[in-house]
Amino acid sequence: MSDMLVERDKLMKDLHSLVSGASGRVAALQKVAELLRSAGNYRWVGLYDVDRAAGIVKNVVWSGPGAPEFPTFPISKGLTGAVISTRATVNVGNVAADSRYLTAFGTTRSEIIVPVLDRTSETVVGTIDVESEKPNAFSEEVQSYLEACSSVIRPLWPRLIMAL
Q1: Which residues lie below 8 Å from residue 51, measured CB to CB, with a gap of 6+?
Q2: Fewest beta carbons less than 10 Å away: which of 49, 61, 124, 136?
Q3: What secondary structure, in 3-state letters, does 100-137 show?
Q4: Which of 10, 43, 16, 28 is nearest to 126 (CA)?
Q5: Would you state the CATH architecture of domain 3-156?
Q6: Nearest residue to 105 via CA among 138, 70, 79, 53
Q7: What span, in angstroms and rounded, lies between the C-alpha atoms of 156 and 26?
Q8: Domain residues of the chain, as ranges?
């Protein structure tokens, strides 16, 4: 087995352990952000809540050199707005060429945002936002892997109670 696969297996086990043993949501999410950042050697990882009632997306935790430029923003804005409306990952290899990109760091060249979906309604309840200073940093394999991570950490988001 290649070193990369061994590292990914270890990360998945670590994520499962964090979720199953979580005593506090924010602390667990902080560890998730740090694990994802170090596993991919990315510059920045943020985890966000989607508050449909308030119409906002709000940063819960981040790991990297600085706080997000937009810790709270409207649900319809940026690349995250596209993720929320389509319930699908957005993977942009050159953020300068995408008008939806909300500049957070001037050195970001590529970004991937992965939805965290509610178990029953498949509504986006959160996102994983990963930024890199390298163009085209997120291959299809990396995207699939981050989507698998999203499924593992999904229990850290409160379940939506859908009105009848």
Answers
A1: 57, 58, 75
A2: 136
A3: CCCCCCCCCCEEEEEEEECCCCCCEEEEEEEEECCCCC
A4: 28
A5: 2-Layer Sandwich (3.30)
A6: 70
A7: 9
A8: 3-156
The answer to whether 43 touches 135, Cβ cutoff 8 Å, is no
For 108-156, how does the pLDDT look when each residue is reduced to its tens digit (9 = 90+)? Answer: 889 999 999 998 888 999 999 999 999 999 999 999 999 999 999 999 9
In 21-105, which residue ranges form alpha helices assigned H by DSSP?
Answer: 25-40, 78-86
Distance, CA of 59 to CA of 141 (rounded, Å): 26
Distance CA 115, CA 136 (A): 19
pLDDT-wise least confident of 101-105, 108-112, 159-163: 159-163
b/e per residue, 5-14, with b = 16+ CB within 10 A? Answer: eeebeebeee
Q: What span, in angstroms and rounded, lies between the C-alpha atoms of 45 and 62?
A: 6
Report yes or no: 15 and 32 within 8 Å, Cβ to Cβ: yes
Q: Are 142 and 112 a contacting pair, CB within 8 Å?
A: yes
Per the listing, tokens 């942009």 go with: 92
